[in-house]
Design goal:
Blueprint lengths: L1 E6 L4 H4 L12 E4 L5 H9 L5 E3 L17 E2 L3 E5 L2 E6 L2 E2 L7 E2 L1 H9 L2 H7 L4 E4 L18 H10 L3 E4 L13 E4 L2 E5 L2 E6 L13
C-alpha cells in the first residue's frame, strides 16, 4: 500500500501544479494537521482514495469549514484494507487554542481508546500532529512532544508513526525519517510518500 502523508504546508507540487497522474499510484492520503481544509477537499476530489486527517494546533477553522469528503480519525482507530490507523491530533498546550493539550489531557485521550485497542488488537499506524517526547521534537513548549505517544509505541509496536508540527525548514537537524525500536517514524511536513509493505520504507520515500 502506497501512502501519501502530508502536514503543515500545502505542497505546490500537488496544489498549484496539479496533474492527476501524480496521485495515480497512491492508495491512501493521511494529513497530520495544520493544512487548509480546501487543500484536503481538493485532494479527495481529484483522487480516488480516502483522505484521513487529524487536527493541528492551527486548525480551529475546521470547526466552521471542515474539509469536505474527508474522514476525521481523531480519537478512533480507522481500519482501511486491513490497516489499523489510530489518530490523536493537536499539540502541547501553550496558549488557549482549541487543539492544544497538556500531557495529562493527551494521556486521558489515549486511555479512552483502551476498549477500541482491545477490540482491534492494537494498531499499525499512529497518526498525530505533534511528535513524541524526545524523538525529534523541540525543547520549547509549543514543539515539545508527548510522552504518551512514546508509551503507545512501546506497548503496541505499530509499524509507523506519522506526525508533523516540527517543520523540516526549522533547521538541518530536523529529520524526515527516524526509527524507534521497531516503529518507523516519518515527519510528514509538506508531503512524503512511503510504501507500507516495504521491508525498509526509508528506501521507498520521497519528499518535497
Amino acid at each position: 500500500m502506497k501512502i501519501l502523508a502530508i502536514s503543515d504546508e500545502e505542497s505546490k507540487y500537488l496544489w498549484e501544479y496539479f496533474d492527476k497522474s501524480k496521485l495515480e499510484d497512491i492508495d491512501l492520503i493521511i494529513s497530520c494537521g495544520d493544512l487548509d481544509p480546501g487543500y484536503l477537499s481538493f485532494l479527495v476530489t481529484l483522487s480516488s482514495v480516502p483522505v484521513l486527517y487529524v487536527h493541528g494546533n492551527h486548525d480551529g477553522k475546521y470547526e466552521i469549514c471542515p474539509p469536505e469528503g474527508c474522514i476525521c480519525i481523531e480519537d478512533k482507530i480507522y481500519e482501511y484494507k486491513g490497516v489499523r490507523i489510530l489518530g490523536l491530533g493537536g499539540s502541547m498546550r501553550y496558549s488557549e487554542g482549541k487543539y492544544q493539550y497538556t500531557e495529562r489531557q493527551m494521556k486521558q485521550r489515549a486511555a479512552k481508546l483502551r476498549l477500541q485497542l482491545l477490540r482491534k488488537g492494537g494498531f499499525d499506524i499512529l497518526v498525530t500532529h505533534a511528535p513524541a517526547y524526545q524523538i525529534n521534537d523541540g525543547r520549547d513548549l509549543p514543539h515539545q512532544g508527548f510522552q504518551v505517544f512514546k508509551r503507545l509505541i512501546e506497548k503496541y509496536q505499530p509499524k509507523f508513526f506519522l506526525h508533523g508540527h516540527v517543520h523540516l525548514t526549522y533547521g538541518r537537524n530536523q529529520k524526515r525519517y527516524d526509527k524507534y525500536r521497531q516503529t518507523h517514524i516519518i515527519n510528514a511536513y509538506e508531503r512524503c510518500v512511503f510504501d507500507f509493505e516495504a521491508e525498509n520504507p526509508k528506501d521507498t520515500m520521497f519528499g518535497p
